[in-house]
Amino acid sequence: MEKVQHMTRSAIRRASTMEVNPQTKQNLQELFVNFCLILICLLLIYIIVLLL
């Protein structure tokens, strides 16, 4: 268990020090927004189907 915690901590440390270029950051944000929009649309379709 101790080893797993240590590995997790070091991985988090590495991820936080890793430099992300602005283009990648923007792509990730757009991907996240698209994902949310798709989820909302699916939810709306589901609700409409339930109401019918």
From TrEMBL:
Membrane topology: Single-pass membrane protein
Source species, domain of life: Eukaryota
UniProt entry keywords in alphabetical sequence: Acetylation, Endoplasmic reticulum, Membrane, Mitochondrion, Phosphoprotein, Sarcoplasmic reticulum, Transmembrane, Transmembrane helix
Molecular function (Gene Ontology), one example: ATPase inhibitor activity
Biological process according to GO: negative regulation of calcium ion import into sarcoplasmic reticulum; negative regulation of heart rate
Location in or out of the cell: Endoplasmic reticulum membrane; Mitochondrion membrane; Sarcoplasmic reticulum membrane
InterPro entries: PLB
Family affiliation: Belongs to the phospholamban family.
Name listed for the protein in its UniProt record: Phospholamban
Organism: Polypterus senegalus
Lineage per the UniProt record: Eukaryota, Metazoa, Chordata, Craniata, Vertebrata
Gene that produces this protein: Pln
